[in-house]
Amino acid sequence: MSKRTIRVLIAKPGLDGHDRGAKVIARALRDAGMEVIYTGIRQTPEQIAVTAIQEGVDVVGLSCLSGAHKQLFPEVVQLLRQKGGGDIIVIGGGIIPYEDIPILKEAGVAEVFQPGTPIEEIIRFISSRLGNRNRGH
Amino acid sequence: MKSKVNLRDEYARWEETTLKKVLERSAERRESFKTTSDIDLKRVYMPFDTEGRDYMQEMGLPGEYPFTRGVQPTMYRGRFWTMRQYAGFATAEETNQRYKYLLRQGQTGLSVAFDLPTQIGYDSDYPLCTGEVGKCGVAIDSLADMEILFDGIPLDKVSTSMTINATAAMLLAMYIAVAHKQAVPMDQLRGTIQNDILKEYTARGTYIYPPRESMRIITDIFAFCGEHLPQWNTISISGYHIREAGSSAVQEVAFTLADGIAYVEAAIETGMDVDSFASRLSFFFGAHNNFLEEIAKFRAARRMWARIMRERFGARKPSSWMLRFHTQTAGCTLTAQQPANNVIRVAFQALSAVLGGTQSLHTNSRDEAFALPSEESVTIALRTQQIIAYENGVADIVDPLGGSYAIEALTDQIEERATEYIHKIDEMGGAIKGIESGFMQREIADSAYRYQREIEEKERIVVGLNEFTAEETPFADILQIRPEVERYQKEKLNRVRGKRDSKKVQDSLNRLREAAQGTENLMPYILEAVKCYATLGEIADAMREVFGEHREHTTIT
């Protein structure tokens, strides 16, 4: 069984400049042995989808604290599907009310992590999702 | 007759006897106790921890240099701090209603939160703004929105703080124009624009233009206000966002004051006399969890700034030496878990700001780990301030913790460490160079990562999050911004574009563009454009064409 390194794109869609969470997660995932690319702030969903596909990532992590997640997260999922990246797992975090989580999941976001989530939990989530997929192939 | 006791001898004796006996029986909870700035805390502080210091040079008296004990001689015995809740969401119409509600509840000043398109100089119908309109603040596209925002609020009676940076000149111009329509002259306007672009590059992200061009706009504002708005705070040099991005208390003080030094230098370079603008500089800090460190931080910042202004810049007016500041309780300490606990956190943080001598205060709401606050939540937050003011008693003594051995020792240590950072930044060539090389950004990111690791490894306990956790039902009653807001705002914008004299708009924008290419003060040109209903995006674009845009370089350290 070949064990490929998990590749992750951490991205900040929209105009929000609060990048503390994105940077901390990026660094923690890298320290956990993943290859991590961080886009920086003010990315359009289009830019994020293109980068994700070009870089051949397994996971896209979206961070948004401005309240625009309900528009921006689903748009990234849509664009990934259109561009042939439908198998990329999209996860999200930020200032997101509970009541929005089912809406985001319905739109194809695999999981939403609220403030205070242990990073260990995010790592476990990614590993288990990708682990299942590898077994499926 | 009393014999003279040598306290150091007594302390050594105590350590050898009373203390030793107890430590032999049971160790302390930890091997060492540290603040968030990694300052080692002593077990107990003694008079000799701060002895041998010149009282008048280090502490002084309230209202006098170096202002360690406060900027006014009577502090809250004269007047309480301004209770100023940061608010803004959806449209100008809805936010206007919230302001009137807050004023009815006893709030004493306004604080405007703008949405991101407004902060970054885009009109609401610009493609990049999808989903952002009216979300984290109110959407302002033109003077027409600003007129609605302050409808029925007399601008000569209220002071208004605006969290606006890259587009501060435009929003200030709109405020002046609204005042004009209310027949309130400029020199009666009281308030603050944040106007602190340097921390946008390091911590908050709403920059537009490159640093040098941004500094020109800022010094233009200093000069314009010096002449026309003598009661206006022309900048709020902000540590809050640096702290929220993850810095320690020491880094917050150091980077904020380093930014302050850069603004003063930039203004002096344009030929202004330091005493002509320095008294209108104001500051903004966070109030985090470590209660005593926070109180010491505020006191240390005040003393440091007084020294910087008097010794480094040779300011002569006492008002130029004063660090006057706003405080907001630390949003990053709020938990999504057991959100009721946030009310308690906010109360302690607010108390530290009051004990530290703040001039105005925003208390966060319990639900801000999820969304903008609901009306009920923001009322509790405001009541928290009122309880401190009217029930707690701490407001009845000026600097009540002054002279506490621990507080004074911590104040000294924060000053010492923050001064070391400022020396380092000076050696790099100043704050702008430090930002361009990514020094501040790296320092902040490192601290943020360390903080998170401490929580993950339970070296740092956050109640309800990594200890004392419980199953809970999701927090309801969240403020949701209706999706119609974006469409409504775009329609309103189109109506404004259709109704105005477009020839006048184009002429005013051309004149602004020309002025931007030269060295004239830009404020009169921006004011002219605003008054003929040029949109915020149009004005920002005219300057983008001349100044270009800043791009960040991001790496994961």
Fraction of residues in helix of chain B? 40-55%
Give the name of the CATH superfamily of chain A: Cobalamin-binding domain
CATH topology label of the domain at 81-392 and 426-456 in chain B: TIM Barrel
CATH class of the domain at 81-392 and 426-456 in chain B: Alpha Beta
User: By helix and strand content of chain A, what is the structural category?
Assistant: alpha/beta
Radius of gyration of chain B: 24 Å
Largest sheet of chain A: 5 strands, parallel
CATH class of chain A: Alpha Beta
> What is the β-strand count of chain A?
5
Low-confidence stretches of chain A: none
What can be said about this structure in brief?
Chain A is an alpha/beta fold and 137 residues long. Chain A has 5 helices and 5 strands, in the order E-H-E-H-E-H-E-H-E-H. A 5-stranded parallel sheet of chain A has the order 2-1-3-4-5, with helices on both faces.
Question: Any overview of this molecule?
Answer:
The complex is a heterodimer of chains A (137) and B (557). Chain A is of the alpha/beta class. Chain A has a single domain, classed as Cobalamin-binding domain (Rossmann fold, 3-Layer(aba) Sandwich). Helix content of chain A is 44%, strand content 18%. Chain A has 5 helices and 5 strands; from the N terminus they run E-H-E-H-E-H-E-H-E-H. In chain A, helix 3 links the parallel strand 3 (59-64) and strand 4. The termini of chain A are close together. The model of chain A has no long low-confidence stretch (mean pLDDT 93). Chain B has a domain at 81-392 and 426-456: TIM Barrel (Alpha-Beta Barrel), CATH 3.20.20.240. Chain B is built from 22 helices and 10 strands. Chain B has helices spanning 7-25, 55-58, 92-104, 116-120, 143-149, 168-181, 198-204, 211-228, 240-244, 249-269, 274-277, 291-312, 318-321, 341-355, 375-390, 405-428, 431-436, 439-456, 484-499, 502-517, 523-531, 536-547; strands at residues 82-83, 86-87, 110-113, 160-163, 191-193, 232-233, 235-238, 281-287, 325-329, 360-362. The chains are: A alpha/beta (137), B alpha/beta (557). The A-B interface holds A 14-20, 23-24, 26-28, 30, 36, 38-42, 44, 65-72, 75, 95-99, 114-116, 118-120 and B 116-117, 119-120, 122, 127-132, 135-136, 200, 204-206, 244-246, 332, 334-337, 368-372, 445, 448-449, 452, 456, 462, 465-466, 474-476, 478, 480-481, 552, 554-557.
